[in-house]
């Protein structure tokens, strides 16, 4: 059976653990709020109504693609494309190519950043492998202007961070929604995790500190893995409505 991503790929290792996916989610939730095209996510009303669910669905789709058989993955990608086309038709406008690229770039960047925070440094060839996987997703979606290799992606990513992010009323509102849906303590933890994984430009625009107060806690959490109690600790701090979804991420892969 041919899979979309090779069974021995570093991409599967990254997207096969709930911890890493949660860190990817945290980074993306910060950058989504700053993106100049975030109004598209407000257009349907789904994002402000359930920001965590909306962002989690994006991450879940990506994970499904990573672990699916090749044709099933292509079907999932085509479904994502079709969903966006409906939104464009309803609004009578097109989502800019740079906005599509931004989301793709986030998945690449936070895959790398999250794994390196939680596990180890990645090699350049492993980073190239991550890029290639999500390039294939973008190519299938018909996104224009994609970089052709990891080095070109790195340069384009830096440019996108400078050009496509802005602290706006949408940013402020979205963070209010995060706080409302998470509660004060979990909201604070989310922001501290974001500091660990987001680029400097995001930290600057969100007026974050450069040091996360959760860094010592993360060290203790890694130590807890030795005694196989890290999942118990993680599940204690998760909101009830998302606990089962996160637990499912640690189950046998597709």
Structure, described:
The structure is a single chain. The chain has 254 residues and is mainly α. It has one domain (10-208). It contains 15 helices and no strands. Helix 10 (169-182) crosses helix 11 (184-197). The longest helix has 22 residues, at 70-91. The chain starts with 9 loop residues before the first helix and ends in a 5-residue tail after the last helix. The mean pLDDT is 86.
Summarize the model shown.
The protein is 74% helix and 0% strand. It has 254 residues and is mostly helical. It starts with 9 loop residues before the first helix and ends in a 5-residue tail after the last helix.
Mean pLDDT equals: 86
Indicate the radius of gyration in whole angstroms.
Answer: 18 Å
Shape: globular
Assembly status: single chain
Q: Which consecutive residue ranges, at least 5 long each, have pLDDT under 50? A: none
Note the beta-strand portion. Answer: under 5%
Distance between the termini: 13 Å
Level of helix content? over 70%
Q: Which structural class should the secondary elements be placed in?
A: mainly alpha
Secondary-structure element series: HHHHHHHHHHHHHHH
User: Could you give the count of β-strands?
Assistant: 0
């Amino acid at each position: 059976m041919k899979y979309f991503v090779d069974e021995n790929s570093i991409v599967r290792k990254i997207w096969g653990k709930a911890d890493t996916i949660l860190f990817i989610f945290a980074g993306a939730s910060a950058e989504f709020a700053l993106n100049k095209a975030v109004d598209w996510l407000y257009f349907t009303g789904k994002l402000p109504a359930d920001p965590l669910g909306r962002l989690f669905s994006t991450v879940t789709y990506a994970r499904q693609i990573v672990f699916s058989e090749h044709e099933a993955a292509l079907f999932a990608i085509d479904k994502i494309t079709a969903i966006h086309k409906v939104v464009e038709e309803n609004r009578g406008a097109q989502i800019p190519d740079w906005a599509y690229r931004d989301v793709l770039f986030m998945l690449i960047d936070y895959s790398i950043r999250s794994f390196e925070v939680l596990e180890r440094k990645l090699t350049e060839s492993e980073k190239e492998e991550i890029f290639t996987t999500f390039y294939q997703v973008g190519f299938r979606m018909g996104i224009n202007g994609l970089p052709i290799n990891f080095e070109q992606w790195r340069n384009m990513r830096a440019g996108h961070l400078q050009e496509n992010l802005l602290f706006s009323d949408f940013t402020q509102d979205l963070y209010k929604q995060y706080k409302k849906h998470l509660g004060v303590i979990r909201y604070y933890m989310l922001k501290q995790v974001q500091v660990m994984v987001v680029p400097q430009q995001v930290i600057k625009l969100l007026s974050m500190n450069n040091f996360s107060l959760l860094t010592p806690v993360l060290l203790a959490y890694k130590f807890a893995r030795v005694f196989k109690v890290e999942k118990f600790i993680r599940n204690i701090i998760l909101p009830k409505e998302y606990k089962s979804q996160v637990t499912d991420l640690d189950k046998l892969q597709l």
